[in-house]
Design a protein that fits this description.
The complex is a heterodimer. By secondary structure, chain A is an all-alpha fold. Chain A is built from ten helices and two strands; from the N terminus they run ααααββαααααα. The longest helix of chain A has 32 residues, at 3-34. Chain B is globular. The chains are: A mainly alpha, B alpha/beta.
Chain lengths: 292, 234
């Protein structure tokens, strides 16, 4: 193992990690806002990847151009999922936590089933895209261009999210609702609107991730499952509910995964992630940046 | 301006207020006094839309508002400061105040009430960047009232503003209520400390076990021998 291979691995791990962060941040956002874990998060990702695929297959729209469209469509999808499904689950009088888990889990199964029915279980891929297959050399380190662009999209999305939360009225409403959802009506804010906005943002962020990932991952109805698992680890690592935690957690997961692959056979590359996850759960259960 | 007619509200089957009627006219300070458990807080919650009423009517400026969602009642011009204040603890004083003007887009609508808040409670101006949870009890109460004023209410409802506050600040807060009225607002205040409350109020209602026991001008109630004996300890 030479220094060059290590740097090479860590560089691609970092790029992947930024994407993991983008996949996970919607989950963290929704959890922080209303203590609901969206078990259909992986299926949101799957849907976004299919949207990107079909835009490419039917309209020859490159994934890069499709990304904002898919993000916008997934914003609507997330908000509607809240308004039509999750909102009612939150009215449960007893055992509200369980009701929410089964509701979002049920949504996941429904989405997967519909995808298998309508999109078939076939593996799809976008074989010709503007960036597909291109690499770029930065100081001797070769980076795949789609992943590099994906990482940049992730950085831009995190930057925009930070600005949105810290500098806008809606962002302040989001923070206030996260503090005390029962108190926002005192200043005239409708908490249901804020929740719908949170789900919309969560959907849009995972939508952007899906559009980018459609460039270099196979697309099939179950594709969300493995990424969702990584997203839960990312969020638990970074601290449930923390947006910055998702960013840091994603990078850690990406780097750990790449380092593990250097030492262990590639088929065991996830072992390192779960080992680190267990370690964090034992030593610091609230996650690295969690505040609970 | 505000008219509560024969309102009954129950929690989990237990009647907290029964057939309560009160009126508040524009520009008044009205005090609702009574012991713990008399139903004072329930009355305010029923007006603010935080609690569903079982029967009766609440109207504001002639329109029925019972059954309206709580955030829409705020938007209509009724600001409500609940007993436990419900500030946003980890947000700054400034952000708490800014959230109060969430409904307004224009600069004047946001800045005018801020001037009023700072003139009433200059300490808040010194603590703008501090987290709300780091304030003392009295300062938190000032912030809660300040945030309510930022919604540019026509009617301000205060639930036990004296609770958990050192005595020196209690009178400061009661004095600020008078200034709020002088600034053109109407105030409905619920209190256990009847003496202080009657002193600033134009009229008062005395609530006992969920019913209106007595009502009248503050001065009359203060002179009433029964009230003096039972409530003012004189």
């Amino acid at each position: 193992m030479t220094t060059a291979t290590i740097i090479q691995s860590l560089a691609s791990g970092l790029l992947m990690g930024l994407l993991y962060g983008l996949v996970a941040v919607g989950l963290a956002l929704i959890f922080g806002l209303m203590d609901v874990t969206n078990f259909a998060h992986g299926e949101f990702l799957m849907l976004a990847m299919y949207m990107t695929f079909f835009l490419f297959a039917f309209f020859a729209i490159d994934p890069l151009l499709a990304a904002p469209l898919v993000g916008a469509a997934m914003f609507v999808f997330g908000a509607v999922a809240y308004l039509l499904v999750v909102r009612f689950a939150m009215r449960a009088k007893a055992n509200i936590g369980m009701v929410q888990i089964f509701t979002t889990f049920g949504l996941a199964i429904l989405m997967r089933g519909l995808a298998q029915y309508f999109f078939t279980p076939d593996y799809r891929s976008i074989n010709v895209s503007w960036l597909g297959g291109k690499t770029i050399s930065l100081g001797g380190v070769f980076l795949p261009v789609p992943q590099l662009v994906g990482a940049l999209v992730s950085l831009a999305a995190f930057g925009a999210l930070y600005f949105f939360i810290k500098k806008t009225d809606f962002g302040r409403a989001l923070e206030a609702t996260r503090e005390d959802a029962g108190a926002v009506a005192l200043v005239g804010i409708d908490k249901n609107k804020v929740f719908a906005l949170g789900w919309g943002l969560g959907g849009a962020l995972v939508g952007l991730a899906g559009a980018v990932m459609a460039m270099f991952f196979y697309i099939y109805p179950d594709v969300g499952a493995s990424f969702a698992l990584i997203a839960y680890v990312t969020v638990a690592l970074g601290g449930f509910g923390s947006v910055f935690g998702a960013f840091a957690g994603g990078i850690i997961v990406g780097l750990v995964e790449a380092s593990t692959a250097l030492i262990l056979p590639p088929s065991l590359k996830s072992v390192g992630i779960y080992a680190v996850y267990l370690l964090v759960v034992f030593i610091r259960p609230r996650g690295l940046f969690g505040s609970i | 301006m505000l008219s509560v007619r024969e309102v009954t509200t129950a929690y989990k089957g237990l009647v907290a207020i029964s057939q309560v009627s009160i009126e508040v006219e524009k520009g008044e300070i009205v005090c609702v006094a009574g012991a713990n458990g008399a139903g004072k807080s329930t009355l305010l919650k029923s007006i603010a839309g935080a609690e569903r009423i079982r029967s009766g009517e609440v109207s504001f400026d002639g329109d029925r508002i019972d059954g309206t969602a709580q955030h829409l009642i705020t938007a209509r011009g009724i600001a409500y400061v609940p007993e436990n204040r419900r500030l946003f603890p980890r947000l700054s004083v400034h952000d708490n105040l800014r959230l109060g003007s969430y409904l307004f887009r224009g600069k004047p609508d946001r800045e005018q009430p801020l001037e009023l808040v700072f003139s009433l409670f200059p300490r808040l101006k010194e603590r703008l960047e501090q987290r709300a949870e780091t304030l003392s009890g009295g300062e938190q109460q000032m912030l809660a009232i300040g945030r309510a004023l930022m919604t540019r209410p026509r009617l301000l409802m205060l639930d036990e503003p004296s609770q958990g506050i050192m005595p020196k600040l209690v009178s400061e807060i009661f004095q600020s209520v008078k200034k709020i009225r002088d600034a053109g607002m109407t105030v409905l205040i619920v209190e256990q400390r009847m003496a202080e409350c009657l002193e600033i109020a134009d009229r008062a209602y005395i609530l006992q076990t969920g019913r209106v026991l007595m009502q009248g001008k503050s001065a009359e109630l203060m002179d009433n021998p029964d009230v003096r004996k039972a409530y003012l300890g004189l």
